[in-house]
Amino acid sequence: MSSKTRELLLSLFKKSLENYIPGTGITFRKAPEQLELERNRELEYYKRVVYFCGKCGQCRYVYQDAYWSRVCPSGELRKFEAFYLGGKNLLLWGLLSGKLEWSERIARIFYHCTLCGNCTQQCQLPEIHNYALEWLFAARVEFVKRGIGPMPEHKRFGDWVRKEHNPYMELHANRRNWMNATKVKELPEKADVVYFVGCTCSYREMEVAKAMLEILSASGLKFTLLKDEWCCGSPLFWTGQVDIAEECARHNVEEFKKTGASVIVTSCAGCYRMLKQVYPERLGLEIDAEILHAPEFLLRLMKDGGLQPEREIGWKVTYHDPCHIGRHMGLYEPPREVIKKIPGLELSEMVRNRRNAWCCGAGAGVKSAFKDLALFAATERLKEAKETGASVLLTACPFCERNLRDAAEAGNFDIKILDVVQVFRDSAVKK
């Protein structure tokens, strides 16, 4: 390799660490003569590219900038090549070339993955680095088409979503029961701001929803909730049940129109990604409103002078990056900016943070179908959080919060787990 070529490649690598793939938090890689691929295509489209994988193992650990830490919960738990990206690429090549038969056994390997994207972040081959998440998802859609996916647990909550519009086996009629403990009793049909609560906040992590409602009430803004909110479709979409997810999406888009809102706020990272990215880019459904995740909204509130955190909270905290807003959407700094503006909070970062953050282990259907993997991943994250000396682990996703708390209770971890929204409420809203 000539010195000129070496310098060019080095400069391209350094630049790749400064720029992200548009709309994501995964660094953009560029090399001479690399293939430019389309996104959101069927699995067959990526057939030739999966064979580019050199099985080097780079998808197993962080390249340089986080002390070579491990990154793949699925592979680290199972300790077998098939559960890492390199193994999955080889399996897909075998399936697409006819050398392997499609089977439930292989389907289980592909579903034993949170689609967190950390493996693609670490891969040094531009085509795989930039596009592997496309074919990992497309494989799930193909498994569903062939009748060997998703997992039985996913099918059950898919059926329940069609019946009661949530994946938690709860009644749709009880979706707003969490509001009974709040002072808000009536909401307008139309408003400038809509809070999209999400299923996890409605049925499981209700304290996050209550905190968000208190913030909105104290902000002075005219806000409302959807009169008939359905699941955003995230747990269905990412398990390959695209048809049911689209039914949910079309319903919610029509409900948004009825409110006349110009801003939609989510406290769930999965909901945020669905509304802002999946609805328009993958389902072709445009929402005529600005989509903000809770930390973005809180920063705007502070900037506009509507609400300021004033009460001091004396905690040393660390922050967990949810994959849906981090690597998938590029929202790394807004939650941290909110944390830094709350008086008395001391933020201590985990070794694996931002684009290298270790996944909580709950997403893409893993918590329902592979509980051992969800518990393993969350436990590893809690160990890392404890190493910072923090007494509180903050995040910006109720599903991450739920899985991390479940693991903390199972492992008797002495660390409190909260959403950034809850701490902001405690500091900014008068009692």
Plain-language structure description:
With 431 residues, the chain is an alpha/beta fold. The protein folds into three domains: 3-145, no CATH class; 152-303, Rossmann fold, CATH 3.40.50.1860; 315-428, Rossmann fold. The protein is 46% helix and 7% strand. It has 19 helices and eight strands. It has helices at 3-16, 47-50, 73-78, 85-96, 104-111, 118-122, 126-145, 152-164, 199-203, 206-219, 234-237, 242-259, 269-281, 294-303, 333-341, 366-369, 371-387, 398-411, 420-428; strands at residues 193-196, 223-224, 263-266, 290-293, 315-319, 345-347, 392-395, 416-419. The strands form two sheets. It has a four-stranded parallel β-sheet, sandwiched between helices. It has a four-stranded parallel β-sheet with strand order 6-5-7-8, with helices on both faces. Helix 10 (206-219) packs across helix 19, helix 14 (294-303) crosses helix 15 and helix 17 crosses helix 18 (398-411). It is globular, with a radius of gyration of 21 Å.
